[in-house]
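PROTOCOL LOG
Step 1. Enter all chains and additional molecules of the complex.
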Amino acid sequence: MRITSSMILERATNELLRQRGEMGQTQSEVSSGRRVVTPSDDPVAAAAGERARLELMRNERDTRMVAFAKYRVAMGETTLGDLGDSLRNARDTLVQAGNGSLSDINRVQLAQQLRQSRNELMQLANRDDGAGGWIFGGQTTQGAPFQDGTPVTYVAQPGEQRTGVDAPAATTIDGRAVLTDIELPAGTSGTVANSSPNSGGVDTRVNIFTTLDDAIAMLEDASTSSAARADGLAKAVGGIDAAIAAQSVARTRLGEQLRAVDAFEARLADDKVADSARLAEMIDVDMVESLSRLARQQTQADAAMKTYAQISQINLFRYI
Amino acid sequence: MSIFSIATGALQAAYAQIQTTGHNISNAGTEGYSRQEVTLRTAAPLQTGAGFFGRGVEIEGVRRRYDAWAAAEVAQNVALNSADKARFSQMSEIDRLFANPETGAASAWADFDSAVADVVNRPADTNARAGLLARAATLADRIERTGSQLAEVARTTDERIAQSVDTLNDSLNRLARMNDLVASSGATGLPNDLLDERDRLIEKVNESMAATAYIDDDGAVNLFARGGQSLVTGNTAARFEMRPDPDRPDQRQVVMRSQGQQLPVDPALLGGGALSGLLKMRDEDLVAARAQMGAWAAGLADAYNTAQSLAVDGNGLAGKPLFQTTGRVMPIGGTNSGAVLSVAVQPGKGAELRPTDYELRNDGGTWTARRLVDGSTATVSPVVSGGATTALRFDGLEVKVEAGTPATGDRFVVNAATRFADTFKALARVPGDVAAGQALVPRTGTTNAGTMAVTGLEFDTALSSAGNSGNRLSLRFDSPTSFTVLAANGSVLTTGNAYEANAPIALAGVGRLTLTGTPAAGDTVALEWNTAPTNDNRGARQMLSVADRPVVGRMDGVAANASDAWASLLGDVGLRTQSAEAGALMSQKLLDSAKEVRTGASGVDLDEEAARLLQFQQAYQAAAKLIQTAQSMFDTLLQTVNR
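Step 2. Run joint prediction.
Step 3. Record the structure below.
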C-alpha cells in the first residue's frame, strides 16, 4: 500500500491526540480522586455508587435520629433520677411525720417540707428540653404536659413520641403512668390515703400529687386524730412506694431502650463502613493502578512524539 | 522535420510535469485533494521513404489519480460516523448534567429527607419546620434546574438539526450548480480540481444524511437518499426544512421538498448522517432521560404531598401540598373541536406514572391513550359528570377538560413525564403550614385489663382536627377476639368484627389501625381528635417512610423506590452515552481506514513528488541540451557554408 505524507501526518496527529486525551482522562482521575466522573465513565459503577451514596446519606439521617433519641433518653434518665430523689425525700418526711412526739407546729413544718417536695415533683414533671419538647410529653402535648390544680391532671396524650424509621426509639416518657395514674402493685389495692384519681370504690390507681396534697392537708389539720393520721400516713407512704416503683420501671425501660438504640447505632456504623467501602470501590480511583497507567501512557506518548519527529525528518527535499 | 520541434515538445512536457508536481506539492495538505499527473503520448510519427521517424512527445492531458470505489466508501463512512458523533456529542451534554451527584437532585432529596428527620425529632421547633421548607425549596430548584437543562439540550439539539439542514441544502444546491457547469462545459468536462470539490460536497451531504452518488456518462452527478428519494438530479436539488410536526405539535420534524412534494423525513430511513444521529438522540435518548427524571420528580412530589394531606399542621388543619408540577396537552391537527385539556398527577397515584408521553384520542365516548415510548395503550377511566366527560384518568395522570367539549376524532398529545421536571416547583408555605402531626390520637382505656396496645395508625382520609374534640370513633372489645366500632356519640357502627393481633384494622373515614396483644372483654381504644398538633411528629414520620416505599413509576408498571429509580436513571444515561461513544469510536476507525485507502490511491506523497521533481528536472535539462545540440549543429553548418 502506498503511504502518503498526509497519511503519516494524519495518523501521527490522531495518535497523539488520542494519547493526549487518554492522559488527560487519567490525569483528571488522579487529581479528582474519582474514577467515575460522569455516568458514562462506568454506568454500572455510577448507578451502584449513587445507590451507596444515597444509602450513606440516609445512614447519616438515621444516625442523627439515633443521637437525638440517646440525648432524650439520657435526659429522661436524669429526670427520673431527680424524680426518685424527690419521692424519697417526701417519703422520709412522711415517715418523720409519723413520730408520735411531734407537736402540731412540727407537723406544719413537715407539711411545708412535703409541699417543697411536691413542687419539685411538679417542676420535674413539666421539665422541657429547651427546644419545645417535654420529657413527659407523651404522644403529643400542647404546652406543659401536667396541669397543676386539684387534682393535677395529665393533659398530654398518653403514650410515647418516637423517632426513627427502621428501629423507632421513644423520645418522650408517658407521664401518666409515672405520676398521675400509677398502677398499684397487685394485692395492695386500697392502701392509699384519703383519695385517688378513681375515687369511690376500691382504689387501684394513684395520682402522686393527690396523695401528697392530701397528706399535706392532713398534717396541717390539727383536728386529725392520731389514729387517723397514722393510718393516712401509712397509706400515703404506700402511694409513694408505688410511685417509686413506677419510676424505677420507667428507668428500666429507658435502660432497655438505650441498649436497643446503641445496638442500632452500632449497626448504622457498620453499614456506614460497608457503604463507604462500596462507594469508594465503585467511584474512587485506585491510585496505584491509575499512576502506573499514567506512567505507561507518558512513555507511549513520548515514544510516539520522538518517532514522529524522526520520521518527519526523513524527507527527500532535504537532499535536493 | 526539425529537431527543434522535438526538443520543444519535450521541453513543454517536462515543464507541464514540473508544474503539476508543484501543484501536487502545494496541495499535499489539502483535504480531499487528488494527486494529479500529466499523461503523455508519443507524437504521430513522420512517414518517409526510409520508414517512420518519431516526432517526440505530446501532452495528452492532466488526470487525477482517483478511485471511485474508495471515494464512495469514504462518503458512506462519513455518514455513519457523523450520525454517531452527533448523537454522542449531544448525549455527553446529558451525561455531564449528572456528573456531580453531590450537587444533584438526589442529594437535595436526601437533604430534604434529613430535614424531615429534624422535624420528627423536634416537631415543636419552628426552626426545624422552616428548615424543612428551605430544603423543599432547594430540592424543587435542583429538579427544575436539571429539568430545564435537559429541555435546553432538546433546544440545542433542534438547533443543530436546523444547522445540519442548512448545510445540507447548501451542499445540495452547489452540487446542482456544478451539474449546470458540466452541461455548459460540453465535451471538455470539469477541471480535476472541481471534481475534487464535487467529491467534497458529496461527502458534506453525507455528513448530514447518507446519500449515494451516480455519475452520468456526461459527468453530471445524481444523488439519492437511502430511501431512494432523489436529492440532486441535473440542476435541481431537493430542499429540506424544519417545521412543526402535524402529528406531534410539541416537536419539529424535518421535511424534504422535492418536485413539488413535501415528505416528512423518517429518521429510521436516513441511514446515517448527523440528522439521523440527532433525531434519534432527540426522540429516544433525550425523551427517555427527561421522562425518567420527570417520573422521579413527580413520584416523589406526589408521595410527599399525599403524606402532607393525610397529616395535620400546627393548627390541626389537613396539610397542603408542598410541591407542584404540571404537564401540557396540545391538540393534534387543526380539526379538533377546540376543547382545552390540562394534565397533572392524580393525587396519591404518583407511583402509577410511567416515563412516557401519550397520544390521547376520543373515539366517541371511549378514549384511547397510546404511550408514545412503546406504542402500548393505557386503560383510560373517564370521569363523567352530568353526562359530560370532565376528566380522564390513566397511568396515575388526570387529564381535565378545562373548556369546551372534546368531539369524536379529537386527538391530543399529552406531555406528562417529559415535562414534570422542568415545571417543578415548591409551593410557598410558612413553617406553621408544615403538617407534622396526625388528626387523631389513639388512646387506650385507663381501665383496660388486657395487654392490647396500639402499634400503628395510618390514614387514608384527609382529616382536620381543628375545631374538633372528643372521639372520632372508638373500639370496644366484646371478647378477646371480637370488637365493636362505636361512633363519637356512642352509637354502634359495626359489631362482631374479628380481631387478630398485628393485622391492620380498616376503619372507614380514617384509615388503618394496628393493634397488638390480647385485649380483655370491655377493653377500649379510642381515636381522639388531636388537640395538640404542634408537638406531634407522627405525620412527619410517615414522610420519612417515603424513602422506603416504591413511589417512582416505571415503564413496566412496577414502581421502584426513589434511590433505585435515581440510580437507574443515572445508569441509563451512562449506558446510552457509553454506547454512543463506542459507536462513534468504532465508526471513526472505519472512516479512518476508508480515508487511508482513498489517500493511498489519491493522496500526495512528498518524497514521491521530490523524486519526480528530480526526474522532470532532468528531462527538462535533457530537452534543453537537445536544443543546444541542435543549435551547435546549426552553427557548425553555418560555419562550413561561410568558409
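Step 4. Note key features.
DSSP finds seven helices and six strands in chain A.
The first strand of chain A starts at residue 146 and ends at 147.
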